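Re: [help] complex structure
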Amino acid sequence: MSQTDQAVPAGHVLRYNFKERITHWVAAGSYLYLLLTGLAFWSPWCFWIAVMLGGGQVSRMLHPWMGMVFAICVVIMYVLWASHMGLTENDKKWFKEVGYYVQNEDEKMPPAGRYNGGQKSLFWGFVVCMVLLVLSGTVLWFTESIPWSLRYLRYAAVLVHASSALLTIGLFLLHVYMGVFAERGALDSMVHGDVPLKFIKRYHPGWYEELTGQPASPKK
Amino acid sequence: MSQATLRVQKISGHAGSVPGDDAQREYAVCKLIDTTTCIGCKACEVACMEWNDLPFGQTVFDNTYQTMPETRWNYWNLILFNEHEKEDGSLMWLMRKNQCMHCADPGCLAACPSDGAIVQYTNGIVDFQQANCIGCGYCITGCPFDIPKMNPKTNRVFKCTLCADRVSEGLEPACIKSCPTGCLHFGSKEDMLDIAEKRAKQLREHFDFPSAGVYNPQGVGGTGVVYVLHDATKPELYGGLPSNPSIPWSVKLWKGPLKWLGNAAMLGGLIGLVVHYLRFGPKEREETIKEAHEGAEP
Amino acid sequence: MTNGWVDIKNTDMMLIMGGNPAENHPCGFKWAMEAKRNRNAKIISVDPRFTRTSSVADQFCQIRAGTDIAFLGGVINYAIQNNRIAHEYLVNYTNAAFVVDSDFKLPADTDGVFSGFNEAKTSYDRSSWNYASAGGAKAAAGTAAPAPLPPMPEKVDFDLTLQNPNCVFQLLKKHYSRYTPEIIERITGIPKQEFLKAADLFTSVRKDGDMKKAATIIYAVGWTHHSFGTQIIRTAAMLQLLLGNVGRAGGGVNALRGHSNIQGATDMAGLYDTIPGYLKVPTPADGSFDAWMKRTTPTASKPAPWESWNYYSNTSKFATSFMKTMYGDAATKENGWAFDYLPKVDRDYSWTNLWNDMYNGTVKGMLAFGMNGVAIGPDSNKNIDALKKADWLVVGEIYQDETSEFWKSPRVIAQGDMKQIQTTVYRLPCAGFAEKDGSFTNSARWLLWKNAAVPTPGDCRLDQAIVAEIFLKVRDLYKKEGGKFPDPILKLSWNYTVPMNPPLAEVLKELNGKALADLEDPVTKVQIKAGQQLPGFAWLKDDGTTACGNWIYSGCYTEAGNQTARRDPSDPSNMGVHAGWGWSWPANRRVLYNRASCDVDGKPWDPTRRQVWWNEDQQKWVGNDVPDFKADSKPKDHMGPFIMNAEGVGRIFAPLAAFADGPFPEFYEPIESPVENLLHAARSHNPVVTKFKDADDKFGTPQQGFNVVCTTFRLTEHYHYWTKNNPMNVQLVPEPFIEIGAEMANEMGIRGGEKVKVSSARGDYIAKAMVTKRIKPMLIDGKKTYQIGIPFHWGYRGIAEDEGKTSLKMVNALTHTATDPNAHTPEFKGFLVKVEKA
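Output below.
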């Protein structure tokens, strides 16, 4: 958050400091592992992934530990970003107009702040799913310790774990698509940390206004 | 080897067809446990330990004759002792040999994600292949009888094999061999059901058990272990034998609709994104970005 | 057993009482289940606790420990009152019609004792316990001191209408008419309705006089372990005679022996008062072989028109052959077959007496083989005190047991006198059962040969090798040093191929017997050459031309080989005879007294269960089993089927010396009981019981606070005091416990798993409580009485014991040494304790 811990090229603003970036990428790495091994356990058609990753036993052994890594990352991200992620009236408007966003007619969108409504929802989606995954995952991790009389916990856990994992996959796909393909430059920001003001002006006009005191879009 | 492979009709976590499915004429085997002639001698428990060469474990006094509260990864065969007072004040001391029921529609196998960790032979025996077990414990969740147990040291799950090794050599399971009272029988499912029904009829007609009957629950497609019970209307009395067991609804949901829904969603999502990219492309083209980087803010 | 394990499958009704075969004989119990499955047979389980046998019974009655005679007497009364008796059988095959001496008095008329009771000697003059002679003349008692009993009359007075008020049947009816359902409820704690239901069910086999069905009575040490144990079994035998169930397939009185070879032990004179084959030991008064034979050989005593084979008239043949086996050529007609070499038994040398003698310092040493004396005997504390006083103790065992480490018992440690104990203990590693060959004689009297499965480990040696070596060393000493009377040792036959380790097959051959001269059967002209094995005891002679170590085993190892090793499972009659499987005494006969399975004309009572029958064409008895009868005795000759009795018939009334405590069983309270005897309060206990009066022999009363009835028992999961050394058994039942009824536990605030202290007048025992619905409180004479049960398998040596996980005490610290006057068995079942939280 601090703007002073890293030299930023002129015309650029530091968006993600080193701590944020490393957290993001550790989370990304662990998530990818969880996704792959999870998919292996999800469907026989994907079980080959587990084989590629060292075998089912290893996959099963590392999956919960990797889950812990991911969960810790999400917690850190929560601490780092939660304050920015409050949904505002503006975000609600943003969602109402999301159709324009999808069709790349961003200029018709209400001006997004540092994070637009979609990004915020992604964040909260991951936080909520992480909580569900950790809870259900713990039950699955220690299935035998759940007494027979509480077996409904086990039953709930398999459903919750699978459903919330599916949800994260949806979020993940969107996230990657947006970050890598749709919003060119976003990936860069997560790598280098800084973004050009132009980028901010383009994608986060609200934030631009905040930073520069000038309206981003003279059209409006 | 080919024989052994062909003897498999269901495989857990398996993509594609199953080698032995639809390939043999072997009939389903079945163990019949007549609880009305079980004397709780535990010979079956010992025989199971001996034949399968299972290591000893610690037990503690627990106000019962029952060896331990439930089966363990290294104790597959456990007689459950339950004292039940009837309405007329007379006592029944119910003893039920508990072990894997070898369901025709096994919940463990349905829940198992690991290719080949659980198989069902064409004779109906459900067997765990520990070499393929990944230790996820889903089978524990999938079993409506609380049977599979994990060795915490090796993270592999174990349970009664119905002595598949003996049966494949034409022998009866070790527990059957050891039973002194003839309370245990082994043979084809058809024969066992026949004996069981006759015995239940005898109990209804000649003994004081008007509700005697056979336990062969259809919720799991019938079982490879069937019971004759003094009172078939109350299987719960016998140490919580479920009256209508089935694969847990959540496991069914998970392995059924949810799976298809999830697969469709994932695939659909992926396709959707590709289509979106092709239709709308990125929000800004490459050159715009370059520009953005190069052209520093004034 | 009169019958056998397999024969139980032929039954229609089982009264299981004083035994818990489902738990203690699970393999044999299969036949009970076969009967249930194949014949719809019913089980009545009468026990102080609801056991695993009760769990498969059709009716369960919870009885106060030690009141079995009251229950059985009540069933006899019920059978007579409801005419559920086998009339033809009763009249012709039992002594029901015999008239009894007019001097004989029942306890109802004599203040709770039978006629002839001597208060000062606490024994009976049994001369009035006799039949009346047909002529009316009374046989005079002998004049020698001590005065022997008069003989039974040669011609007995009888009344086939059973109406004579002094006939056995009328006396029986009168005696047990006092055992009403009401009094039984007050004594046993079994509610009247339940008792009536059980009595009705059991006697239902004789409904409307039908003789087709058969009922069996099955018991074990729950009956024998009482100060009147023999009489409980007698009552059962009488009931079975009354119902015509003895000699029948699926009938009989069947003792389940608690070890694989206890039957063999008693057959081979495990008790001090017999020599092998149940011949009576000589006493100092006998003086000579002939006098011994005269005393112990019965003469026929029967109604004049009937016949009695009186098989024991052959006693001298059995005894002579035995002496020839023991002393070979040294036994001659001239020296009374070496009669002087045999020890003469002058008093009671039973188990408790031996320990008592050691306690009192007269027995200085002990060889303890195949038993853990400290643990198995009553009053363990007394036994440990006795061993402290011994000079030496030799223990042959496969484990380090409580006896060989008596000096490490918790009590000795608590008393702190371990260092004062001077007893030298020698522990010899012996062989386990799978490491030895030899034969087992099971409860069914079947001798079954087994081979050693594995060699003995380490320094372990076979029992016979150890005993042989001791004998040979002792013999050498006698050879060298002479001694007072060396002949019995020096002249003992020891003709084994390996004298230091006699092969057991040779011993079995010796028991079977062989011809010492050429023999010829006068009728069949069959010849046996000198040195050949005998085909059976019919060949035994009293002229020294045969040798036989145990007459009842004759036939087990013939010229055809070892019959006990036969393993032909076939059973063409499907009656469970299996004549080619092992060999059973006597004469490979599976059901004793099987002549009684036929009516007077020799036709089977039940044509579907044919055992033996009279074949008119062959003019002899034939059958699926070996007839237990004189093969050519025509039915019209009316020879009695009970050929071992001098009367030829079954004894409902047991005359003269048969029992120490009465010709009819009378209910007496256990030595320690919560109430006075409701039949006769002044005569609560067995008047002729054997009791010691040493410091350790204390008895408790309800007034002292000992108000809970306690019984001991075994578990399926353990075998005596051995299996606590085996991890498998320890896993099945890891630690000792005390079974306490839920209501009692509730009242005392005891929960399952909490430690409980049980104390008797002699010692205490601490273990966890097993709170169960299987023991209910009883109303004894209107007073709420609790009963508990303790399994006895633990002590201070074993896996859990060595890890310090159990209480390290022995249950028999609680039990007392009063014994049955006939069999000298201690009263392990049914004594008083107090129970408190530990």
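Residues 567 and 581 of chain C are 5 Å apart (CA to CA).
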